[in-house]
Design the sequence.
């Protein structure tokens, strides 16, 4: 019996087989796998959570600072403080035994949750400073650089392949942020030009850290936890958010900002009830975004999750122009278009990979491998 050659996985063009045994199958690493309708419903639901939660969190976070809020630690705390609502899905998706033969130990899981929680706390703090010093539209467009950073981290941590289109996406998104950095505009509440520049630096750093977190979460799912049940998504989010919130509470008391919260609530322009509801809905919005984020990483990949987050970014500047009367001048529009162009480059790469994958599948179906 002749030796049957192994199917080779490539992202290059499909080669015509010289014999039924000589077949090259194209595999698309960044493209979405073929799944059933239930899988697509979950993906669509997580996309909705991410887009809506991110928009609500950013807009209400800007509203908090515009109407008299000035506590960085409170603004950071609300980004993770909504984790108790995860108790409901934890009851719906109860814990199951790990399916891997080598399930992670409790100390290993504890290390993952604590490390991710502390890293998220630092990242949320950077985002809070960025949102304090920048208009919502500028802040959101700079956040588009997170996709470029994620490509780099995914390459080293998640074996993501580089292509010229993905590289084009990275360059365009980076130039978009650089264009905004060189463009002077009036910052919120009379913020100085120095703080405006710091806001850009903090937001870029936060975007890079966020991308690293996404890749580390995917790495944890794939290499350490190796659990296919959806309950692990809520468990990881719950425990890491608990650590993040705990760190923010410590920062709130250590900095002494807790003493000014009562006066801050009393001086809030739209009233005490509005102050409390702003914090509550901000917390719920960010937790909704986190559910979508963890869910998409678990179901697809960190890079796809960041693509959806980048796609959601143009929504925020549009809403900011409507609700906060932010200026959408020519430079900002150009930066926004460059960010969208970078996103389109990534989507086109997915299209090409999916097309090559289908072509390879057609070749396999037309030339099935049969042992001699």
Sequence:
């Amino acid at each position: 019996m002749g030796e049957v050659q192994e199917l080779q996985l490539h992202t290059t063009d499909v080669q015509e087989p010289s014999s039924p045994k000589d077949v090259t199958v194209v595999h698309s690493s960044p493209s979405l796998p073929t799944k059933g309708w239930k899988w697509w419903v979950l993906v669509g639901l997580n996309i909705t959570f991410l887009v809506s939660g991110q928009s609500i969190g950013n807009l209400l976070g800007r509203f908090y600072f515009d109407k008299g809020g000035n506590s960085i630690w409170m603004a950071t705390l609300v980004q993770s403080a909504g984790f108790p609502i995860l108790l409901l899905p934890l009851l719906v998706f109860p814990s199951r035994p790990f399916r891997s033969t080598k399930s992670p130990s409790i100390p290993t899981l504890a290390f993952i949750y604590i490390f991710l929680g502390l890293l998220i706390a630092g990242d949320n703090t950077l985002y809070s400073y960025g949102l304090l010093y920048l208009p919502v539209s500028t802040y959101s467009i700079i956040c588009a650089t997170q996709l470029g950073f994620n490509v780099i981290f995914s390459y080293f941590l998640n074996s993501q392949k580089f292509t010229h289109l993905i590289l084009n996406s990275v360059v365009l998104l980076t130039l978009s942020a650089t264009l905004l950095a060189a463009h002077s505009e009036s910052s919120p509440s009379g913020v100085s030009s120095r703080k405006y520049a710091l806001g850009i630096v903090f937001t870029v750093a936060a975007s890079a850290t966020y991308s690293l977190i996404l890749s580390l979460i995917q790495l944890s799912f794939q290499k350490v936890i190796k659990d296919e049940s959806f309950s692990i998504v809520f468990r990881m989010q719950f425990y890491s958010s608990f650590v993040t919130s705990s760190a923010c509470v410590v920062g709130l008391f250590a900095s002494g900002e807790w003493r000014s919260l009562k006066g801050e609530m009393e001086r809030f322009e739209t009233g005490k009830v509005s102050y409390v509801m702003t914090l509550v809905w901000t917390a719920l919005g960010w937790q909704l975004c986190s559910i979508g984020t963890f869910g998409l990483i678990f179901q697809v990949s960190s890079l796809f999750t960041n693509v959806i987050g980048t796609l959601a970014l143009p929504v925020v500047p549009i809403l900011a122009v409507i609700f906060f009367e932010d200026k959408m001048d020519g430079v900002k529009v150009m930066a926004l278009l460059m960010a969208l162009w970078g996103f389109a480059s990534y989507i086109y790469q997915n299209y090409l990979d999916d097309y090559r994958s289908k072509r390879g599948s057609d070749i396999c179906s037309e030339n099935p491998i049969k042992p001699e």
Remarks:
- Strands lie at 8-10, 24-26.
- DSSP finds 14 helices and two strands in the chain.
- The CA atoms of residues 130 and 203 lie 5 Å apart.
